[in-house]
Amino acid sequence: MTSNGIVQKLWNHCNVLRDDGLSYGDYVEQLTFLLFLKMADEQTRPPFNKPSTIPKGYDWPEMTYSLLFLL
């Protein structure tokens, strides 16, 4: 996926959150947290292979697994 595609996807999610009644500050906070979890997960994979600093159950794989049941 290109950078433009990622940006467009992020804005699409922002529009959904805004349409659901969240304010700009609220959805920026939520998306920032999700991006943080994703970036932390990326650091645990090659070529970085760093240990995770996120507690089990609150990490990206757990979050994405949990989201499958909410949708």
Tell me the count of domains: 1
Rg calc: 14 Å
Q: Regions with pLDDT < 50 over 5+ consecutive residues?
A: none
Topology pattern, helix = H, strand = E: HHH
List the total number of helices: 3
Average of pLDDT: 87
Distance between the termini: 23 Å
Classify the beta-strand content into a percent band: under 5%
Instruction: Give the number of DSSP strands.
Output: 0
Summarize the structure.
The protein has about 70 residues and is mostly helical. The chain is built from three helices and no strands.
Explain how this protein is built.
This protein has 71 residues and is mainly α. It has one domain (3-70). 68% of the residues lie in helices and 0% in strands. It has helices spanning 3-19, 24-43, 60-70. It is globular, with a radius of gyration of 14 Å. It starts with a helix and ends with a helix. 0% of the residues are buried. The mean pLDDT is 87.
State the main characteristics.
68% helix, 71 residues
SSE blueprint and pairings:
Elements: H1 3-19, H2 24-43, H3 60-70
